[in-house]
Fold:
Amino acid sequence: MSEATAPKVFIAGKPVEGVHEVHEHVSPISSYVKVFGALLVLTALTYGVSYMDLGNASLPVAMIVAFAKASLVCMYFMHLKYDDRYNVFVFISTILFVAIFFTFTIFDLMQRDAVNPEQDTFFRANFGEAFGFQPPEPPEGAEAGGHGHE
Amino acid sequence: MNLSTLFLAMAPAKDAPLPPNDAKGGPWSMPIQASTFAPETDAIYLFILVLCLISFVGIIGATLYFMRAYRRRSPDQKTSSITHNGKVEFLWSAIPAVLLVVIFLWSEVAFMKQVVPPSDAIDIRVKGQKWFWTAEYPANPGVQLNNEIIVPVGVPVRVTLTSEDVIHSFFIPAFRIKRDAVPGRYTTVWFEATRPGDYNLFCAEYCGDQHSEMRGVVHVLPLDEYEAALEEAGRLELEQGESLAAFGERIYTRKGCNACHSTDGTTKTGPSWKGIYGADRTFADGSSGKVDDNYIRESILEPNAKVVAGFTPQMPSFQGQLNDDQITALIEFMKTLK
Amino acid sequence: MSDKSKGSVAPDVPATEPSFWEADKGLASWLFTLDHKRLGVMYLVSTMIFLFVGGAAALLLRTELLTPEGDIFSATVYNKLFTVHGAVMVFLVIIPSVPGALGNFLLPLMLGAKDVAFPRLNLLSFWVYTLGAMFFLYTLFAGGLDTGWTFYTPYSSTTGTSVVSATLGAFILGFSSILTGLNFIVTVHKMRAPGLTWNRLPLFVWGIYATAVIQILATPVLAITLLLITIERTLNIGIFDPAMGGDPVLFQHFFWFYSHPAVYIMILPGFAIESELIAVHSRKHIFGYKAIALSSVAIAIISFLVWGHHMFVSGQSELAGVIFSFLTFAVAVPTAIKVFSWVATLYKGSIEFNTPMLYGLMFIFTFSIGGLTGLFLGSLATDVHLHDTYFVVAHFHYVMMGGTIIAFIGGIHHWWSKMFGVNYSEKAAKIGALLVFIGFNMTFFNQFILGQQGMPRRYYTYLPQFQQQHVLSTIGAYILGAGLLWTAIYLIHSLRRGEKATSNPWHGVSLEWHTQSPPIQHNFHGTPVVTSDPYDFPEIDRTGETDRH
Amino acid sequence: MSAIATAEHPEHLAHHFDTLEQQAAAAKLGMWLFLATEILMFSGLFLGYFIIRMFYPEMVLEAHEYLSKTAGGVNTVVLITSSFTMALAVRAAQVGDQKNLIRNLIFTIGFAGVFMVVKYFEYSAKFEHGMLPGKFYHAWDHGYYIEGLPHIFFGLYFCMTGLHGIHVLVGIGVLTWILLRAKKGEFGPSYYTPVENVGLYWHLVDLVWIFLFPLLYLVR
Structure:
């Protein structure tokens, strides 16, 4: 560096004193342990809930628990809670764009037979004969999903 | 000044009858309006065109005027200190927004009319396949047309589309309709022809080598002639006094064999039929055999059984589309091709 | 609001110190450079080479289309040629060119920084671009690709041509785009010179920033889509291929979710350059700075909501089509605001008709046609007739070629002296501009008529009634090709025999004009301090200060 | 970057940055943008899963019975623990506690290894039963007759867990590189950005698995 003494350093117009320090939040070990425990509990919860037969409510419940665990990891383990606001904005806008991608695509797939009933999706039985991929019919004896031999 | 004559001399004369010319109204006009949708689609097209011309003349006119009025006359020519003008900027965002909403609404209404078929429409099932259309009429079983669709005038027709292999697109410019034929599902499009005549049918979604050959003709006939023409088109039998080979040649063109097999020796997607009868062929699996009646019959019904070496197994099976005497007629026709 | 302080045109900085060209010599110093300026030059050279490769493919296509019958090549070769034209132009030229060449070179200069935030990632981005290009070249030799640049399944999952090497090539090029975008966002956020607040950023930086945002948010979805095509072809898992139970329209959703924002990755840098050209050469403050800056970001966001207008007739549900059509009109408004603001910038300016300004004005002409014809394709009823016809081909060529490439050539002329320290010959450049303008319009305006009459696109043979427009279009294509070749010739000639350029030939105000041409390795001596708006030209008459509102 | 430490030029400050904090903030923002691209890439596969679930609900429910919930559960606990030890490692670097930093990094790599071993057993079980993706699916030879098109579900299963597995392997590689540098004592309160960025990447890999596990293994 050609200057003799360290220049008054500016960033975006504001002078900066400590050229050397890095000001970052250091959270105590106890907060990590608490979050870790919560994550284990939530995992056990979602594992247990899967055995109860919730029918089609099981997807939303699993998603809520997963979001809870994800937000715990993001806020504490990834320091989003104490971080520069722009990183949070980047993370939230990513989730927003993933949501846009999902909603429009799934909306289209659900509305296909809204106007013309027979436009709904169907798929032929003779699958992949071009690749010689022929699932044989199950023999009468074996009920669907039988636990086969090794 | 028609430059095409300059180049037509080079192109070999095409033997097939010239396909219909939808754009009779000269180079700048839209195709003929031959369906109930056409007038409204053209009206929307014209409305957007007028809006675009006005704004285009406005933009380019202003640019040209400013270029002339404010060209640099002296190196230190003073310029205005305007940096923005809230009112003007609001106007030139609000007015386009309103006009755009108007375009959207009108176009959306017209689209919804195009999409909901009336219940009393004639049903036609069209199947797109690598490089030809097959139309079937559930109301007249046994009628099967290749690259041809016969529809009555003034009666709504609902076309249910599917495809055997890749995505094709059922496009009739004169009716202003287009719908993709997606493999693995049905899609529907409907129209009501208003003018008798022949109109072009194109495949608009890229589907491989012969994508541009996958053309057809839509015959619009008055109602009374429609039934008779359909019957006649469906019937593909030996006429009195017609030789078996001539009947075979009719099948060759009607069933779309010409799309892949030429009769003058040039190999297209399939081997040429010139001098094929009785010749020896080596097949893809290394074995070889003589091209006799059984081989031809087998190749028509199960094309992938013995594929000639160097060709891809792309031929669809014609099981149920060709009866026995039609196949014998085809064999007779092949014998004549030395 | 622009600042009251007096605009300071950069004084002429004599090129005393060794520029980044002479900083160090040898091939290794170029191949492993961390200097954003050298990477910018390397991107410029490689994208221009591929522009001519893609252009040559286009000329071959146009020659074939002179006659209704196919007589020069076979159908397969024709299909492979239009795929080469599409894939090379999209993935190798128009997406990396402006951000890679001008963005890399100018962003640190305009921000007053010494380099981009992550120089090594910048070098990695160029190497990943070269690797991706290698895959494309391999595809050419391995029998070519005939699926079109859109890779629609089930054609792409069942065709015999080498799809996997092309999808892997595009997959790798996606990472080059992500790395560039990531680099620019962090650079703009963290490395602005003192005094350079968001309202004083040149509009070029705003445009490149908005492009970088789209590159970050859209390209990964292309990565997973291409990965799924490769897996579909090798394992046939059946997510897109209907023969195995998949849904091809689902592929179109995946593909267009990237590809529509990608067309904004292509046009936003064109807007970015256009704002600079119009303002500097009419010596007047850009009209509506905030409107243009915010509409860049607005376009970046709304571009993610409109991809369904590519699929109105492709089996997408009608209700989804209606929603996508409405949102497509929403994205037209910010674009219109930009064009009107540029024209308003000319009002009461002092316009000098040098070559960059000619290309800037040409951009207004061609992009207006491109943008307005988008309305026909955004509205449902007319799109049913016009979809997949030559009308669409003409529309996107008017926006991509008439928009980005013409703005890019204007930008190259505008900053040529800054990059290479020499001046090109104005007379030759004006001839080139005329040829490009005539050739371009003659080639593509006829295709609107073809499309309106219902000629489908990607056709190897066509009906005789369309031949007249095709012949005119082919002649135009040759004129356009000649114009671009001529431009390349006189620019390369100027490198050897061009006379030395001063550091600020156009009397610009933004930071890149405050250093010598070509700049030194570390761009500036010490950190420049920004005190005014980048469009505060001395010619602006401030006496009528009171009427400012 | 030359690591010569001069008075006003701290050891790890790149020439084009003004302060260490500006450099650290830039590196973290760069990392978050990279994580955004990772999330968007995985979103494509998740959308594929939701759509196949919409097309073939009963097939997905029946086919996912063949995934062993316990193996998935064990893997989830292993990954969460490795995320925990990774967070402790980053904290150790922040406070300059070299011993804990190295210990936690080794734990994290160890748990990642366990995750891959469990996954190896899961995959080999699937291979034995012939439940392979796409056209290689031949579970009927082993007596399993699943209605509908199970090859799609197993295709997606292998895509999602396979891509996630590759990210875990890359994670192990990068963690080992950080461990080697930590052994040389490079990280301290003034310079720990690499550890923090690798930590962010590792937490993201855990985040993806947090969503993958219920969707593939648990949901009825």
Notes: Chain D has one domain: 52-218.
